[in-house]
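Q: What would this chain look like folded?
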Amino acid sequence: MDAPPLTLNPRSTLDASGQRINALIYRALTQVDHNLETRGDLAENWKSDRESKQWVFRVKSDLQPLFECLENYRTGKPTSPLLNGFPSWKSTELKKSRNEIIFHLDRPDPYLPKNVSLLRLFFTRDMKGHITPCREPGLNETIHGTGTYRPETPGLNPGQTLTLLPNQAGLSPLHFIFVREESSRILRFLKGEAHAVQNNISLSKTRWLIHKHGDQFKMIEREGVTVSYLTFNLKDPHLAKKKVRLAIAHAINRTHFIKNKMFGFGSIANSFLSPRLSEAWNGDFSFDPTLSEKLLEEAGYLKGPDGIRLKLKYKTTPVREGFEMALIFQQMLRDVGIELTLEVVEPAVHLASVRKGAYQLASSRWVGVADASILFRTLQSSQPDNRANYSSPKMDSLLTHAMLQSDLNTRVRLLQEAQELMLEDLPYFPLWFWHNALVLRKKVTGLSPDELSLSGGLVPLGKLRVGSPSL
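A: My prediction, written as structure tokens:
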């Protein structure tokens, strides 16, 4: 993998590496499987009242520690950043006689059963040996997981390697090697230091590896739900104009990029939601540079002597794939009279800038989009993940009414209208969905393409074997 988890503390884990590895170490009320379906984990089943303001989970394990754990997530200090995903969670109730834990909400949340998969059960042990469920660990305190694997070495901050030992018979240890620089990652893989790499080699290098070293490696591929998108800062006077945003989008040839730069490891996106999700809207958006120029003319941007109509700044990173995409966008927009100046910053600075709205144009990804809650987080005017500063009374109304709907068909219809409106107003321009590519040494078996996680999760990798049940 390219980067180690920032922490193995489930209360604080927001990064993709941490979330994926924590899914192996800890359990929760529910889990999201490789097909993005919500399955019971510590919970046997769940149900809601008609308004989805009360969710009842029937639990098959010891209730009291799990109840205390959830309350520590809700009220413990320091506040867990995961609480941002549960803004309506008001209180939790325990009914021991029924083996039930009840979530009380101050407004409906039909996606709560899926999202509680992030509230993972663990135990914190203090220096005197006292154990508390899901308490924030102090200095030199340890935490203990509840999942399929456990770290071989205690500690919340892995180094450049991490070994997970199985907690049940029939499973092999999993050894993770973290190498930030891609060339070093590939060389170490070629030397035989690892059996597998998933979504951590650039697409050009993946193609080269399979083509040049097909005697050593094979690839398993499956479509994915990680989506790249272009975001417009609607506080900018130029990008506040809808015709300018539409002109930019119509000038971008996504088919060309997927074919020639992604080598077919992707598909066009017209929403944040993959067609694999039931709420997805099946819309379309054309590549049409002639229309782009017409829209710019109508918006008042005429060509100057140098052929330039408008100058904009595009924030990107030095990471190869992102930077190459920026260069291609620069040329595509230059063809319709938009001069794009690239502002290259480190990934952490890029993310902070986009979150703060310190940009004109930028691109980013939503990783592992599993349900339509992404629409509420990014399109409602009051949400912190609304990175485009988008505000639409019609959109707010659609999303609010969708959340109030207990009838699934009605909710899906409203959400599809919201996605259609997003493509009309264009605060974001969805670009493409990334396929999942798992490159394996030839002798590794045990996993079929359909068993790969649509979100790029690591749980299915526990099925891999090297010639025998032991790695």
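Residues 408-425 form the longest helix (18 residues).
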